[in-house]
Automatic annotation (TrEMBL), chain B:
PROSITE patterns: 2FE2S_FER_1 (PS00197), 2FE2S_FER_2 (PS51085). This is [2Fe-2S] binding domain protein. GO terms for molecular function: 2 iron, 2 sulfur cluster binding; metal ion binding; oxidoreductase activity, acting on the aldehyde or oxo group of donors. It comes from Alteromonas macleodii. Residues 1-76 form the 2Fe-2S ferredoxin-type domain.
């Protein structure tokens, strides 16, 4: 591992006192960044450890919102969301990701900012525009089974790996940040990620010296919810396709549909076209397939991942029909589709 | 001086901030019970317990755990007396080569507490329409961060099941 200069941030001194630039990185849990530093995919000159930032390690709420601190671990957030039926989707997504050991260290902000698991990004002997801009994309014409079908460009087809972010996009979470000049920003998670275009190394709207302080989620009824993740093994694997959905059925029609897709986009995918098609429609297989087709009209596959559109159609159909069936049987239900607690 | 508490005694943190907790245990403290398998958080052989929570020692810098209480396999039992899960591993033949075992046991000891606390797992939300998910299915899910290339999984799950039954008596 390359040497780095270590600084600490505990939330008290201003960010402007830290040497933040393109070669500095904030270190939260470290489950992704330390791994990338060992592989020399990341070679920061400066690390700013957030281990002593206790204030960011809390979850609070008022009448309207949940406020999740940047340093709240994935385990703690899953446990909290498990007790709140209107954000069960978040608990389901978190618990479907990684392992207990990783979730005990991984943080809310770190999860949002984790890097892709594209094999070529990790392999420093291969060309990768995300790791080394201008070198090319090794995935585009090669083995690309895990790669994206939405939001791709000729420069990059890497998938965003998060489960948590997919659920948060469905739930319309807001990211709150702090800048060195003391200003704060609120960015909808749905607008937070950038598609790769010809600058795949720039992944979010954050400035290099901007720090996520917390995430807020509006308290509202989200109906019956299900995070369904399809992957190569039943635990500890990234999604090939995942569907995060929450919905109600009123007068026999979809109402208040929350929806997002994982494993298929260069960013956690917010399927606006499909949602517009489905909201207010009758929950039939035909309607759902038409909605999937509307979204898939802008999809592009690359050979090894040609199976993903059909897998997405089938997963979306299964999830929405099961949720609708549950809502019809249990009108007004709020919480997980399956709950063995 | 910056320290962490390791198996009940305070130890000074290393000078080089690049030192992971795992390398700190091996190279500075000569504690080799915690194993290095993949060194990338994929295999779980380096699992230790920090402030009551199991973590991968390979994916955390030692300095991040300043002030923390860390328990490794060397601190799981009390002196010559084995932890009930260590005994169960022997009784159930829950290992072959043994390389993953210290990580499995640290993970399992944490699992016992997590299940007692009713921490949810993915199995809590799995598609089991008409019956509660089985305990063994739940244990397997919760232990998925610990690989065993000898394939001793069924016996590992049996050993953990035995201790859960013992604790419920």
């Amino acid at each position: 591992m390359q040497p780095f200069t270590l600084h600490h941030y505990n939330g008290e001194k201003p960010l402007s006192s830290l040497p933040l630039d393109t070669r500095s990185r904030f270190l939260a849990g470290g489950t992704n960044l330390i791994d990338l530093m060992k592989l020399q995919v990341e070679t920061p000159k400066t690390l700013v450890s957030l281990a002593k930032w206790d204030k960011a390690n809390t979850i609070s709420e008022d009448d309207n919102y949940y406020y999740i601190g940047a340093m709240v671990t994935n385990s703690d957030l899953a446990k909290f969301a498990h007790t709140q039926p209107n954000v069960s989707l978040l608990a389901q997504a978190l618990l479907s990701g990684a392992t207990v050991q990783l979730r005990n260290r991984a943080t809310t902000a770190g999860n949002l900012l984790q890097r892709t698991r594209c094999y070529y990004f990790y392999d420093t002997t291969k060309a990768c525009n995300k790791r080394e801009p201008g070198t090319g994309c090794s995935a585009y014409n090669s083995m690309n089974r895990i790669h994206a079908i939405f939001g791709t460009s000729e420069s990059c087809i890497a998938t965003h790996p998060s489960d948590m972010a997919v659920a948060m996009i469905a739930l319309n979470a807001q990211v709150h940040t702090q800048q060195p000049d003391g200003n704060t920003r609120q960015i909808a998670l749905r607008d937070f990620y950038r598609e790769p275009g010809d600058t795949p190394h720039i992944e979010t709207q954050l400035d290099e010296d901007e720090l996520i302080t917390h995430v807020s989620i509006k308290k509202k009824a989200n109906g019956t919810q299900y995070y369904h993740k399809v992957r190569d093994r039943s635990s500890y694997a990234f999604a090939l396709v995942s569907v995060a959905a929450g919905l109600k059925i009123e007068d026999g029609r979809f109402k208040d549909l929350s929806l997002a897709f994982g494993g298929v986009g260069t960013k956690p995918w917010y399927p606006q076209k499909a949602i517009s098609f489905l909201e207010g429609a009758e929950p039939t297989q035909e309607v759902i397939l038409q909605a999937a087709e509307a979204e898939l009209s802008k999809a592009k596959t690359f050979g090894s991942n040609d199976f993903k559109p059909e897998l997405l159609r089938r997963t979306l159909t299964k999830v929405l029909l099961e949720l609708a069936e549950h809502q019809v049987k249990h009108p007004g239900h709020e919480g997980a589709l399956y709950d063995n607690a | 001086m910056a320290t962490l508490n390791l198996n009940g005694r305070d130890v000074s943190l290393p000078d080089d901030p690049r030192t992971t907790l795992l390398d700190f245990l091996h190279q500075h403290l000569s504690l080799f019970g915690t194993k290095k398998g993949c060194d990338h958080g994929q295999c779980g052989a380096c699992t230790v317990i920090a402030d009551g929570k199991r973590i991968n020692a390979c994916l955390v810098f030692a300095f991040q755990l300043e002030g923390a209480e860390v328990t490794t396999i060397e601190g799981i039992g009390e002196g010559e007396s084995l932890h009930p899960l260590q005994k169960a591993f022997i009784e159930r033949d829950a290992f072959q080569c043994g390389y993953c075992t210290s990580g499995q046991i640290c993970s399992g000891v944490s699992l016992l507490r997590e299940m007692k606390n009713e921490d949810p797992s993915a199995v809590t939300y799995s598609q089991t329409r008409h019956s509660k998910a089985s305990l063994k299915e739940d244990i397997s899910e919760r232990m998925s961060g610990n690989l065993c290339r000898c394939g001793a999984y069924p016996n590992i799950v049996d050993a953990i099941t035995d201790v859960i039954a013992l604790e419920r008596q």
